[in-house]
Amino acid sequence: MPHVIAIDQGTTSTRAILFDENGRPVSTGQLEHRQIFPRPGWVEHDAEEIWQNTREVIGRALGSADLTRHDIAGIGITNQRETAVVWERDTGRPIHHALVWQDTRTQDRVDALAAEGGGDRFRETTGLPLATYFSATKIGWILDHVEGARERAARGELLFGTTDSWVLWNLTGGVDGGVHATDVTNASRTLLMNLATLDWDDELLGAFDIPRAMLPEIRPSSGEFGRAKSSSLLRETPIAGILGDQQAATFGQAAFDPGESKNTYGTGNFLIVNTGDEIVHSKNGLISTVAYQLDGQAPRYALEGSIAVTGSLIQWLRDNLGIIGSASEVEALAASVPDAGNVVIVPAFSGLFAPHWRPDARGIIAGLTRFATKAHIARAALEAVAFQSREVLDAARADTGLTIDELKVDGGMVANDLLMQFQADLAGIPVVRPAVPETTALGAAYAAGLATGVWGSLDELRALWAEDRRWQPEIDDDARAARMREWGKAVERSLGWAE
């Protein structure tokens, strides 16, 4: 039986998951990496640690399944998007820690660019607003703050990539002929790619002062990128699929056609609605992006609602406040009270992303009284995840005119039944969890399996999707509207906090 291995290089950990020909997970290896916070608003990763962990988790997944490279048809890669790595072509050493998608240190540069032409000056070309979220200003910051980096980049001595490119380059040999490439989904998150041409755009490169010589080649999401060399366990296995994590989750949910959607609950939340071969420009705070591209075919596009802080809010309760000892404890604590006691949390730790795009917002806890306990705060934290997802769901409906009858969900937080019920209540539609909740890794496996013949068509992949559980709304429209008004008041109070 052929297997496919997916490397899921995420924001907090790196995993390798083996899938069989039925799309079922067989084994997993996982390691967390350090979250580095040098200053408020700064978030970094050690790219070398990520690569070391990648090699280790591949071994763990293969060892646990008692399989070898001869059992593996292909490798898929999925990754945290927008996180910027810059490294030396000749040595493979990063010249600075990776700047993570959550990092906001480049806000001054974003403001300066916006002052010259508005926050949407590149939206027609890229589908994106000007924001620290995307890669372009992160690359510029590294080039400006590492001595000699700009000159070296112009000479072709430095390479840039999101973490998919970093893993691919190392996996295919690194300094010994490593492949420097990315796929269209990751490239579409840099603020440097033209959505229509699927190529780096000279006007954008000039505006952000990024040398073309350091950028990876842009390729379709499904197709052979190269073969593994640096991992003896996977030697000569083709790397045949790359998708940014949210597009991979959409692919894993079999949302291949216009109007099909999913919402992923991870470090942040990300709603994606497939718009087919049409680039839809949002009027309601969403972004336009590439959903996927199969080798030899036209790209498929999507609208996305990106929420910065959801799962990381639960980590904050654990690591910063000590309210819980582990993330799994939050559901029981939140369920110990019948409601949030009028407490509302707006987790604008890095400003607010979709649909507000307000970098001046900061996190608040509103509605506190002496009655409030840590259980109410835990429940309010879970509700904040559902409130934010309802906002981007409303924006997607407004932009597309589509009726979204149900919400397919995935990611680590969907194991939380209380949260899923909150979401159904606030969305007013059923929430559906798939039988394989780790759809991010599954989507990367699907892309690689399509390119290597494990699966023959999208219809074959669609037939593999299965439902695990469904939550129905349990509150009426009036109660739902009242809760959203409460959320809206709290959001208003979070705005304008940062000068």
List strands and helices in order, with pairings.
Layout: E1 3-9, E2 13-19, E3 25-32, E4 44-45, H1 47-65, E5 72-79, E6 85-88, E7 98-99, H2 107-117, H3 123-126, H4 136-145, H5 149-154, E8 158-161, H6 163-171, E9 181-183, H7 184-187, E10 193-194, E11 199-200, H8 202-208, E12 217-219, E13 222-227, E14 238-244, H9 245-252, E15 261-265, E16 269-276, E17 287-292, E18 300-307, H10 311-319, H11 330-335, E19 344-346, E20 364-366, H12 374-400, E21 407-410, H13 417-427, E22 431-434, H14 439-452, H15 458-464, E23 467-471, H16 477-494
Helix pairs in contact: 1-6, 9-14, 10-12, 12-13
Rounded mean pLDDT score: 93
Binned strand content: 15-25%
| Class by alpha and beta content | alpha+beta
Order the strands across the largest sheet as they lie in space.
17-18-16-15-21-22-23
Give the oligomeric state of the chains in this entry, treating copies of one chain as homo and distinct chains as hetero: single chain
- The helix tally amounts to 16
Bulk shape: globular
Number of strands: 23
Poorly predicted runs of 5 or more residues: none
Helix content: 25-40%
Account of the 3D structure:
- With 499 residues, the protein is an alpha+beta fold.
- 34% of the residues lie in helices and 22% in strands.
- The protein has 16 helices and 23 strands.
- The chain has a seven-stranded mixed beta sheet with strand order 17-18-16-15-21-22-23. It has a six-stranded mixed beta sheet with strand order 3-2-1-5-14-13, sandwiched between helices. Strands 4-7 form a two-stranded antiparallel ribbon.
- Strand 21 (407-410), helix 13 and strand 22 (431-434) form a beta-alpha-beta unit.
- Helix 1 (47-65) crosses helix 6.
- It is globular and about 65 Å long.
